Amino acid sequence: MFSKGAALDTLIGKSCEIKGDIVSKGTVRIDGKIEGTVKTTETIIIGETASVKGDIEGKHIIIGGKVTGDVFATHKLELLATGELHGDIRTPRLFIAEGVIFEGTCEMEKILQDMQQVKK
To answer: What is the pTM for the complete model shown?
Structure first.
């Protein structure tokens, strides 16, 4: 699900429930329930059994479970066939599989322009 060389730094298992924010500098995988924001400089994987109520921010975000909140992916957002997202999206690259439930808005062109301005 993520690049071959990437290491998994944080794992929230199926039986785990967290009320609070998660901040990491590495890859985070969630298979349990979170009520709070999830933020990392790397990849966030929301597994099929996961439920997140809160905003998510990361470089590469993969959603296979249920998310209620806004999502900001600085590189790419993938919504897998089992994914459900109720919130707004900001990302330069977006993949949506057939069968996804998505309710919200998506902003892509402006964020790409903003990112290009920063690089200049």
So the answer is: 0.86
